Amino acid sequence: QLQLVESGGGLVQSGGSLRLSCAASGFILNNYAIGWFRQAPGKERERVSCIDASGGATNYADSVKGRFTISRDNAKNAVYLQMNSLKPEDTAVYYCAAVLSNACAVVRGVIVYDYWGQGTQVTVSS
User: What is the pLDDT of residue 45?
Assistant: First the structure.
């Protein structure tokens, strides 16, 4: 009943763009900080970006700063990740996750997030 569903992944050439969506069902995202994570084969899952429940603060990993933008639309109960200037190194399965917190600076670890989507594959070709 409570779930997050990612969409928008796909195959894109280096330098291209994708917009990922994270839609919630069964609960309202207003009180949740939302993180975007990614995991490539053989690597640990890492947080790419996060947006506070209020939407007033965002966080980005150094590797994606200036290229990715996270946003939320509470009216649609959804969160988005706009990815520009994609690189082959961005290839991974991307997940959105929710946690009852307003402080992305505090909720950094994978283990603290309460709800996870199943992921969407992003593949960036050279």
Answer: 95
